[in-house]
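Ticket #4471: complex job returned nothing on first submit. Input attached below:
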Amino acid sequence: MKKKKKLYEGKAKVLYTTEKANQVIQHFKDEATAFNAKKKEVIEGKGVLNNFLSEFFMEKLNNVGIATHLIKRLNMREQLIEKCEIIPLEVVVRNIAAGSLSKRLGIEEGTRLPRPLVEFYFKNDELNDPLVTENQIATFEWASEAELGEMFELALRTNDFLSGLMSGVNLTLVDFKIEIGRALRYSGDKLLIADEISPDTCRLWDTTTKERLDKDVFRLEQGSLSEAYTEVASRFDLLPRNVKSVVK
Ligand code: UDP
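Support reply: We reran it on our side without changes. The output follows.
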């Protein structure tokens, strides 16, 4: 499958059209950003790691009937995906308090929540992706009532599945963000998990030591991001320990 023209360039990825109207190529860049791109850095190899990790998680989700946009990985940095109309909401699921939840509600980081919490944020960089209510989602028609129900279900099923997968390699899934799209192939009638699932979009802590193995390493300047992501990839046997050998 060949790339045709650039469709969209975001902070961490680029999308290209292909000869098929329903399929696009997603390219993973090495740029790391945090705090709404106020903090930026190129981290060599990050794109490769996230390409492999996102492929791994999405393929596993596809295999258990949780539909994602992934068709197949094409090379070190690219994957072929279903074209979607992205619903303008970031769907966050939390198992343990951290990040913005801890700050907003004063819950100590590391506190396990009584049950998984699903939150929706309006995707808008200028507004800093504000937290929104279900009523706002309905009022502004960002998603229909049926879609909202489906988004809750997708988010919770993904959480159960990924929590188990992570726990198998001694990682705790603290929280994560997914984006959901309406698949073009089904005229928008089918929802798919889109974007990426990687340590850029999940909080992953070593279950025993509580060491952070996700983007917080970069946000909080707590060490090497590529070492942390390589550690996650190697726990799933995805890459050799020294990622530098495969980055070029
Ligand atoms: N997250 C993300 N992209 C965003 C905002 C959050 O992938 O633009 C992820 C983040 O990595 C974490 C979860 O969503 O796994 C919850 O993030 P939180 O609301 O705590 O915000 P943060 O503290 O990361 O700003």
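The pocket of uridine-5'-diphosphate is lined by residues 90, 92, 98-101, 129, 175-177, 201-203, 215 (CB under 6 Å). Closing as resolved unless it happens again.
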